[in-house]
Design goal:
The protein is an alpha+beta fold. Helix content is 20%, strand content 36%. It is globular, with a radius of gyration of 15 Å. The structure holds ligand LP2KCY5N and cobalt (II) ion. Ligand LP2KCY5N binds next to strand 3, strand 4, helix 2, strand 5 and strand 7.
Length: 139
């Protein structure tokens, strides 16, 4: 089995403040974290705990944000990506590339402090897919 646990569902939002309010009303104030700027990814991210997984609210940060074109097409915001944990990210990427799937850019440290990489939505049934090395993987 290549993919493990669903770590988070990424949701692109035009306004982080409005999104936080919405999710506080749905999951309770304690479930919604504080936004963190991640300039290397061109986003501001804020996690919402759903108990069995997390929602990652992401808003554009900087001129070259990967969310810019997406939010032009969906100005009210929309589901942006799914993120699955893998035990060994370099090994998973080798296997996925061998199947002909396109990896977008180079792996880099993600919001949880472990390596992440993205797979092209056209190679993943229309779903932009993030894979992240599981925090307990020990690499
Ligand atoms: C917080 C850090 C990190 C974490 O640790 O969790 C993150 O989650 S960061 C999240 C943001 N980062 C990324 O999205 C990086 C990877 N993304 C990309 O490389 C690009 O956004 C993209 C997916 C290659 C799209 O690039 P873009 O220049 O916007 O191309 P197009 O607009 O021309 O799109 C091409 C094609 O793909 C469709 N598309 C685009 N985005 C999505 C999406 N999120 N889900 C599904 N499909 C998507 C788009 O509609 C185009 O389709 P066609 O119109 O049919 O050609
Ligand atoms: Co993500």
């Amino acid at each position: 089995m290549l993919f493990g646990r669903l770590n988070h569902v990424g949701i692109a939002v035009p306004s982080m403040e409005e999104a936080q309010e919405r999710y506080r009303a749905l999951f309770g104030a304690g479930a919604v974290g504080e936004p963190v700027d991640l300039p290397a990814h061109g986003v501001t991210a804020c996690f919402v705990s759903t108990g069995n997984s997390e929602i990652e609210l992401i808003a554009p940060l900087g001129e070259a944000s990967p969310l810019a074109a997406f939010l032009e097409k969906s100005p009210a915001g929309a589901q942006h990506h799914l993120c699955f944990e893998v035990a060994d990210l370099p090994a998973a990427l080798r296997a996925l590339k061998a199947e002909g799937r396109r990896v977008l850019g180079e792996p880099r440290i993600g919001a949880h402090g472990t390596l992440v990489a993205f797979l092209h939505p056209k190679d993943m049934g229309g779903i932009l897919t993030e894979i992240m090395e599981a925090p307990h993987a020990g690499h």
